[in-house]
Backbone:
């Protein structure tokens, strides 16, 4: 049986040098979740360099957890009472040092240092729906919240405004571009909707978008099956990962190099393709679980899977 955890990969050069890679592994005991099945849904890094993660196993909610790793005191778990329920699906850090946690019954809002917080549900706030599937924070600290219905709400100054001008498909991801525009990836067609200057536009040529990443160079990177589409200034480039290598996550390092994760490899973008790095040509593990993120020290954090015999009661 497989257990899902994550580790850091320290990227010493823009590309790997043969198979010499420095790797630090973090497994179940490190999380305080020994002998449990977990799926890492998201990884976020706050302004202090703390690594935030959410673990969610769909069929066993008691295994789910949101936590923080600061490198000094180690791994700290968020009190589950601060979540509307144990289905953490997405994370976003606001400009007031709180992390927003999307769940199927609302939002948890927790301060990154004190770990104190509150919940936000339709019953105790103006949250328009319960099943939150994505959350992001823009440059003005406005929260953008996506729902399973396909609706998107913006939350500012204690008020919600709900937007829905497209077909009802679940919002899977929300990303804020460097120009302040809001990009949402949907589970059907259109695959992308964009909000800029008060107007929504749709991209019907893409569907079922899982991951969108924006960088400081003005690029918006969209994973669509086994390809990445790069949007910038009205121009698009396509980078191929190879047939069957559906992209699960995208990250950009401090030099602007683009990395992507698929189920069985990490890829470094070079022109119109990805150079793959996997267990076959490096010391990387065999199978990955999705999200990837660079910290300020140029360390790449991501999830992986490994084989282990686990007893279940």
Residues:
């Amino acid at each position: 049986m497989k257990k899902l955890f994550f580790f850091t990969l320290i990227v010493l050069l823009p590309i790997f040098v043969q198979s010499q890679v420095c790797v630090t592994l973090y497994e179940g005991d490190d999380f305080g979740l020994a002998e449990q099945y977990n799926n890492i849904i998201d990884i976020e890094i706050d302004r202090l360099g703390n690594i935030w993660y959410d673990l969610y196993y769909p069929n066993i909610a008691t295994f789910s957890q949101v936590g923080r790793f600061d490198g000094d005191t180690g791994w700290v778990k968020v009190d589950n009472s601060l979540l509307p329920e144990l289905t953490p699906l997405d994370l976003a850090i606001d400009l007031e040092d709180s992390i927003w946690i999307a769940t199927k019954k609302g939002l948890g809002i927790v301060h990154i240092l004190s770990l104190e917080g509150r919940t936000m549900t339709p019953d105790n706030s103006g949250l328009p729906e319960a099943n939150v599937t994505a959350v992001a924070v823009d440059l003005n600290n406005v929260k953008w919240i996506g729902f399973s219905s396909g609706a998107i709400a913006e939350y500012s100054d204690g008020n919600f405004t709900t937007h829905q001008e497209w077909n009802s498909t679940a919002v899977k991801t929300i990303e804020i571009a460097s120009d302040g525009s809001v990009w949402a990836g949907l589970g059907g067609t259109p695959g992308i909707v964009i909000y800029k200057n008060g107007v929504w536009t749709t991209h019907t040529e893409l569907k079922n978008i899982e991951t969108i990443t924006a960088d400081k160079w003005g690029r918006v990177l969209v994973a669509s099956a086994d390809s990445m589409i790069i949007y910038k200034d009205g121009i698009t480039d396509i980078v191929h990962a190879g047939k069957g290598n559906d992209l699960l996550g995208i990250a950009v390092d401090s030099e602007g190099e683009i990395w992507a994760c698929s189920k069985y490899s990490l890829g470094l973008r070079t022109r119109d393709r990805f150079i793959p790095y996997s267990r076959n040509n490096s010391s990387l593990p065999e199978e990955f679980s999705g999200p990837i993120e660079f910290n300020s020290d140029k360390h790449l954090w991501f999830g992986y899977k490994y084989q282990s015999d686990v007893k279940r009661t």
